[in-house]
């Protein structure tokens, strides 16, 4: 045992060796065990001497023992708060454990952290008193904080206890109710023979609800009456009967029920009005259906007229295209002849205008060619004629022909991976590819790359054309394959709005499909798929 300073020893003498009936010991937090214990502690823990207890550091006070972590947690709490109390089952060195009340107090003496440990054994009387105190506190908590009124009366009907909610319901302070007769809270108690009813209940007390056969009411201090729900119970104390009344104010409930009944009546009226409206609307619909049936024949005739109009439009387009082609051919021939005249000081301007004429004529020729293609498609004059073809050569030649449409810095990156023979309509396939490349170049800026990829599987040809152009918004993509449709993002670029429509019709003739994906401002990717058959 280490030597202790004089001041430390004086404190121990005061704390440990006083005539105490409970254990008092000093626990050194650094050593992890007791350094002193008083005689009452030695006797309580059944050790032969203080030296035997202090020499037993493996002993644990509690049974089952505290783990090191649990004991450290208790020490930390005591050190932080200065004091901590708890109940625990305490082990003896010899004999049965006992229930004890443990008090831990933190202190420091000359810088050494210590715990003053006090143990008091619980006797049966102390345990009963403690349990009774707990029971009283629980009762008081329930009684005081209950959300319904509670009143206790003796056999004579005199109120001996009332909680705060009961006083609030009847307009009294709880103390003002004590000593009054319960009839003070019952309206017309005399007329209802309440005293006789109370005597009857006292003769045969039971736990029961009241007012199941008639409504109940309570009377406030100011004389006003309000609806209540009440139930009764009882208990005996020292052979004296006490009756407990539990009272609930039904004012809000009855108001809600009345509001609900009013609402139900309102809903019933609305339902009746709605049913009448449904009947009226049904009759109106039946009349409308009769009128629609009469209009059916008229619509059928109108549809036939529309079909004839469509046929006339197609014939008109074909006729107009042929009529325009002859003078346009003469114009382009004349432009070629002008270009061959010998030069003069105005020859450069002449050549510039000649180029304008040629470009304009070619543009008109392309438009008329598209009109003519639509007319032939709608008249059923275009058919697919599959034949063996060299896909690599077809793509190469088409890309070469499109170089004249490239803007400054534009390039076409193409690649064909098709190790198997292909049998398709070369003319239609070339027109599809030309149309796709024309759109990609037209709607892309200078110094951009248009990508063409073609690949074959034994059963399918896939061609993808991807540009980095203006793109098309999601809401505009739905109308891209309709005749003459042009998206707002490309409305300033010349075009007819027939290209994708014609491509779709060509693909239908060849049994293929088209898919378009586009993001506004980023570009467009068009993928076509065509079924392949075994070449001859």
Automatic annotation (TrEMBL):
Record keywords: Coiled coil, Kinase, Phosphoprotein, Transferase, Two-component regulatory system
SMART domains noted in UniProt: HATPase_c, HisKA, PAS
The keyword S-adenosyl-L-methionine is assigned to this record: no
All residue ranges annotated as the Histidine kinase domain in the record: 319-534
EC number per UniProt: 2.7.13.3
Any GO MF annotation of the entry: kinase activity
Record's catalysed reaction(s): ATP + protein L-histidine = ADP + protein N-phospho-L-histidine
Enzyme class: transferase
Superkingdom of origin: Bacteria
Record domain PAS: where: 135-204
Database matches in PROSITE patterns: HIS_KIN (PS50109), PAS (PS50112)
PANTHER family: SENSOR HISTIDINE KINASE RCSC (PTHR43711:SF26), TWO-COMPONENT HISTIDINE KINASE (PTHR43711)
UniProt-recorded name of the protein: histidine kinase
């Amino acid at each position: 045992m280490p030597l202790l300073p004089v001041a430390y020893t004086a404190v121990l003498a005061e704390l440990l060796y006083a005539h105490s009936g409970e254990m008092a010991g000093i626990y050194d937090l650094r050593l992890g065990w007791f350094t002193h214990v008083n005689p009452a502690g030695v006797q309580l823990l059944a050790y032969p001497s203080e030296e035997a207890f202090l020499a037993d550091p493996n002993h644990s006070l509690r049974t089952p023992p505290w783990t090191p972590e649990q004991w450290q947690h208790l020490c930390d709490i005591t050190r932080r708060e200065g004091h901590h109390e708890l109940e625990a089952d305490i082990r003896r060195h010899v004999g049965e454990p006992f229930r004890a009340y443990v008090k831990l107090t933190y202190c420091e003496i000359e810088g050494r952290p210590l715990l003053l440990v006090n143990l008091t054994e619980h006797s049966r009387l102390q345990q009963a008193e403690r349990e009774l105190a707990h029971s009283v506190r629980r009762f008081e908590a329930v009684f005081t904080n209950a959300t319904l009124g509670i009143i206790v009366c003796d056999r004579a009907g005199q109120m001996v206890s009332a909680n705060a909610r009961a006083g609030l319901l009847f307009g009294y302070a709880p103390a003002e109710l004590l000593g009054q007769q319960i009839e003070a809270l019952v309206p017309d108690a005399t007329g209802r023979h309440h005293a006789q009813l109370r005597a009857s209940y006292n003769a045969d007390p039971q736990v029961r609800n009241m007012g199941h056969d008639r409504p109940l009411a309570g009377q406030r201090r100011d004389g006003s009456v309000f609806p209540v729900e009440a139930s009764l119970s009882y208990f005996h104390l020292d052979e004296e009967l006490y009756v407990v009344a539990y009272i609930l104010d039904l004012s809000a409930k009855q108001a809600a029920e009345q509001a609900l009944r009013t609402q139900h009546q309102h809903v019933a009226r609305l339902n009746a009005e709605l049913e009448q409206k449904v009947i009226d609307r049904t009759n109106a619909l039946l009349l409308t259906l009769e009128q629609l049936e009469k209009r059916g024949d008229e619509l059928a005739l109108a549809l036939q007229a529309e079909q004839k109009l469509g046929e006339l439009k197609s014939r008109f387009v074909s006729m107009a295209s042929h009529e325009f082609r002859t003078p346009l051919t003469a114009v382009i021939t004349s432009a070629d002849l002008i270009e061959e005249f010998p030069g003069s000081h105005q020859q450069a301007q002449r050549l510039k205008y000649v180029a304008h004429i040629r470009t304009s004529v070619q543009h008109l020729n392309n438009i008329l060619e598209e009109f003519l293609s639509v007319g032939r498609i709608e008249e059923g004059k275009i058919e697919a004629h599959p034949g063996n073809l060299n896909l690599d050569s077809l793509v190469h030649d088409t890309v070469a022909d499109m170089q004249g449409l490239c803007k400054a810095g534009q390039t076409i990156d193409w690649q064909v991976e098709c190790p198997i023979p292909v049998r398709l309509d070369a003319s239609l396939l070339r027109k599809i590819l030309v149309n796709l490349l024309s759109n990609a170049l037209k709607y892309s800026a200078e110094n951009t790359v248009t990508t063409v990829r073609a690949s074959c599987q034994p059963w399918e040809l896939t061609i993808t054309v991807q540009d980095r152009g203006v793109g098309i918004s999601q809401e505009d993509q739905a109308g891209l394959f309709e005749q003459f449709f042009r998206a707002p993002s490309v409305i300033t670029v010349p075009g007819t709005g027939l290209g994708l429509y014609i491509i779709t019709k060509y693909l239908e003739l060849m049994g293929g499909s088209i898919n378009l994906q586009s993001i506004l401002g980023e570009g467009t990717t068009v993928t076509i798929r065509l079924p392949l058959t075994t070449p001859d």
